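Example (one chain per record):
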Amino acid sequence: METVDLPVRRLLRHVEPKTVIFLFVMVMTGSLGSVFLRVGMRHDVIRATLDPVVLLREFRGFVSNAYVWLGIACCIVSGLAFMVLLSWADYSYVNPAASSAYIITVFFGWLLLGEVVPTSRWTGTALITLGVLLIGLTPARTTGQKSTKGPHTGTESPTPN
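Predicted structure:
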């Protein structure tokens, strides 16, 4: 039986499944966290004031909002997934891959929040998507691979076992 080599499989051939799963969790919880924070803060406008009574009243307003707490929880999960990913993959891979959250966030803003997204913003989102896809074509981890040269020095360095 022959296996079909799907474009997604080819794109992710250098990436371990656990990395893909945690990237998905990081991006989705970060994007959903932003949506929940936006919904929670939509009605609780924080005014620029130094009056402690007004600040306390406004603080109580958004701290008691369930959407704000749900957004904070999602952002914490996203941050934890980011930390785990940094232990598995290069920073130069994980951080740009995290930019795919911008793509999802624009889409969620349009779909869930009813925002009008101008063509120029969709174009920028498409460029980010292209960049994320290009990064996805590279191995997630290049550090720790056997090398005969030290970083940036041109000197010999021991190869890891």
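Caption: The first helix runs from residue 7 to 11.
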